[in-house]
Amino acid sequence: MVIGDPIAHSRSPGMQNAAFEFHGLGSPYGIRHVRPDELGGFIEFARANLKGVNLTVPHKAAVIPYLDTVDPAAETAGSVNTLIIENGRIHGASTDGYGLEHALLENFSRPLAGAGVTFIGAGGAAHATAFHLAALGVKSIRIANRTVAKADEIAEKLRRLHPALFVETARPDDSATLARWFADTDFLIQATSLGLKAGDPAPFDLALLKPELKLCIFDTIYKPTPLLAKARELRLPVADGAAMLIHQGAKSFELWTGLSAPLDAMRRGFLEAQPC
């Protein structure tokens, strides 16, 4: 089951059920809209009735106090997207970083070690993936977030764990700083929820994107967004969040079942799925 608020856009059920069906396990994966004030009650339901859960916005950090154990990497990042439930005990893990790593390699074929990375947004996805990329040896991580204090919190943790890593923070409306960053960025990761809803504004001033920039643009949203449209107009290398969802979902499936994830079947399930 996947939970979130909002959640109707999710294609995870089609993707995950394709994997379960591939292994002859039926279609047990569902979807539930869980608001923040309902999270505690849902966790108790899951503890008694489910074997696994995926979480998306806004539950990735809020769920941690309810868990019995947490994977060290997920605890460091302060973000959990996968629950593994056994004998009434709940273990939290994050597959977001794994998913982003493999999505970037799949879409752009550019090495991550030594790369410069800029994140727009400092929520759960940025928390998990920034620490994962730092462990892979990127040279710099820059984080732009409306609440700079949240970006600073991630930055301080990154500096403590990776002293050689260059880290900066700013607001996404600080256009002068973002322009400087983009000139030294290999991968631009849009990690906010902007774009999930029709009429959402762009996450930053899209006029900052120039065709001569050498950056690859990855939007974690897997539907058309203003950022994706602008990047394609400028013929910049660009990808949406589909591959990240598929790869992180594949890792979750393997954690729940111990079986190999059938990536081709999961891709077909994702493409055929219709949002609820």
From TrEMBL:
<feature type="binding site">
    <location>
        <position position="96"/>
    </location>
    <ligand>
        <name>shikimate</name>
    </ligand>
</feature>
<dbReference type="InterPro" id="IPR046346">
    <property type="entry name" value="Aminoacid_DH-like_N_sf"/>
</dbReference>
<comment type="subunit">
    <text>Homodimer.</text>
</comment>
<feature type="binding site">
    <location>
        <position position="220"/>
    </location>
    <ligand>
        <name>NADP(+)</name>
    </ligand>
</feature>
<dbReference type="GO" id="GO:0019632">
    <property type="term" value="P:shikimate metabolic process"/>
</dbReference>
<dbReference type="GO" id="GO:0008652">
    <property type="term" value="P:amino acid biosynthetic process"/>
</dbReference>
<feature type="domain" description="Quinate/shikimate 5-dehydrogenase/glutamyl-tRNA reductase">
    <location>
        <begin position="111"/>
        <end position="160"/>
    </location>
</feature>
<dbReference type="Pfam" id="PF08501">
    <property type="entry name" value="Shikimate_dh_N"/>
</dbReference>
<feature type="binding site">
    <location>
        <position position="222"/>
    </location>
    <ligand>
        <name>shikimate</name>
    </ligand>
</feature>
<feature type="binding site">
    <location>
        <position position="56"/>
    </location>
    <ligand>
        <name>shikimate</name>
    </ligand>
</feature>
<dbReference type="GO" id="GO:0005829">
    <property type="term" value="C:cytosol"/>
</dbReference>
<feature type="binding site">
    <location>
        <begin position="121"/>
        <end position="125"/>
    </location>
    <ligand>
        <name>NADP(+)</name>
    </ligand>
</feature>
<feature type="binding site">
    <location>
        <begin position="10"/>
        <end position="12"/>
    </location>
    <ligand>
        <name>shikimate</name>
    </ligand>
</feature>
<keyword id="KW-0560">Oxidoreductase</keyword>
<dbReference type="InterPro" id="IPR013708">
    <property type="entry name" value="Shikimate_DH-bd_N"/>
</dbReference>
<dbReference type="InterPro" id="IPR022893">
    <property type="entry name" value="Shikimate_DH_fam"/>
</dbReference>
<comment type="similarity">
    <text>Belongs to the shikimate dehydrogenase family.</text>
</comment>
<keyword id="KW-0057">Aromatic amino acid biosynthesis</keyword>
<dbReference type="InterPro" id="IPR041121">
    <property type="entry name" value="SDH_C"/>
</dbReference>
<feature type="active site" description="Proton acceptor">
    <location>
        <position position="60"/>
    </location>
</feature>
<dbReference type="GO" id="GO:0050661">
    <property type="term" value="F:NADP binding"/>
</dbReference>
<dbReference type="Pfam" id="PF18317">
    <property type="entry name" value="SDH_C"/>
</dbReference>
<protein>
    <recommendedName>
        <fullName>Shikimate dehydrogenase (NADP(+))</fullName>
        <ecNumber>1.1.1.25</ecNumber>
    </recommendedName>
</protein>
<dbReference type="InterPro" id="IPR011342">
    <property type="entry name" value="Shikimate_DH"/>
</dbReference>
<feature type="binding site">
    <location>
        <begin position="145"/>
        <end position="150"/>
    </location>
    <ligand>
        <name>NADP(+)</name>
    </ligand>
</feature>
<dbReference type="GO" id="GO:0004764">
    <property type="term" value="F:shikimate 3-dehydrogenase (NADP+) activity"/>
</dbReference>
<dbReference type="Pfam" id="PF01488">
    <property type="entry name" value="Shikimate_DH"/>
</dbReference>
<comment type="pathway">
    <text>Metabolic intermediate biosynthesis; chorismate biosynthesis; chorismate from D-erythrose 4-phosphate and phosphoenolpyruvate: step 4/7.</text>
</comment>
<feature type="binding site">
    <location>
        <position position="248"/>
    </location>
    <ligand>
        <name>shikimate</name>
    </ligand>
</feature>
<keyword id="KW-0521">NADP</keyword>
<comment type="function">
    <text>Involved in the biosynthesis of the chorismate, which leads to the biosynthesis of aromatic amino acids. Catalyzes the reversible NADPH linked reduction of 3-dehydroshikimate (DHSA) to yield shikimate (SA).</text>
</comment>
<feature type="binding site">
    <location>
        <position position="81"/>
    </location>
    <ligand>
        <name>shikimate</name>
    </ligand>
</feature>
<dbReference type="GO" id="GO:0009423">
    <property type="term" value="P:chorismate biosynthetic process"/>
</dbReference>
<keyword id="KW-0028">Amino-acid biosynthesis</keyword>
<feature type="domain" description="SDH C-terminal">
    <location>
        <begin position="243"/>
        <end position="268"/>
    </location>
</feature>
<dbReference type="InterPro" id="IPR006151">
    <property type="entry name" value="Shikm_DH/Glu-tRNA_Rdtase"/>
</dbReference>
<dbReference type="GO" id="GO:0009073">
    <property type="term" value="P:aromatic amino acid family biosynthetic process"/>
</dbReference>
<feature type="domain" description="Shikimate dehydrogenase substrate binding N-terminal">
    <location>
        <begin position="2"/>
        <end position="83"/>
    </location>
</feature>
<feature type="binding site">
    <location>
        <position position="241"/>
    </location>
    <ligand>
        <name>NADP(+)</name>
    </ligand>
</feature>
<dbReference type="InterPro" id="IPR036291">
    <property type="entry name" value="NAD(P)-bd_dom_sf"/>
</dbReference>
